[in-house]
Amino acid sequence: MRSGIRFFLALVLAAAPVFASTSPAYADAYGITALGAFDYTFQGLKFTVPNGFFFQHAIHGSGLVVTHEQADIVAMGPAVAESDFCNWRIDFQYEDADGKIYRTDRGPLATTCGKYDIYRAIPETRTLPSYGRSCAIFYVNGAERVRQCHFIVKPS
User: What is the structure's pLDDT at 154?
Assistant: First the structure.
């Protein structure tokens, strides 16, 4: 067993320079993050959000030019039938390379309840003032529930 683990580790370490030398993609990024289970109360009703919801965030463009950005919620398994989100919004937040927030595009507040059509997009092209990070943030009933981020780096 130990010799098998040593062989596997040697193989991974031998391949590491190949993966490390690969240049990153600068044009588009996509990520998905699990939401996690939580409870909240809205208008006197208690809601339980089970595991199985995921937050997707995609950004398209090149360098500082962003041509499209979107984020949404998807469900898998029991989450598809079990819960609703009320009083939610999706914000897009931008940070410089030092982590300082320089812009927040606050999304509209959806005061109705539902689990479908939880989506926000910024389809117009815009130029960001600095490299750093773009994050999509999902809020439910005023509380941040999940964040999904992508680095925006200078092309080499």
Answer: 82
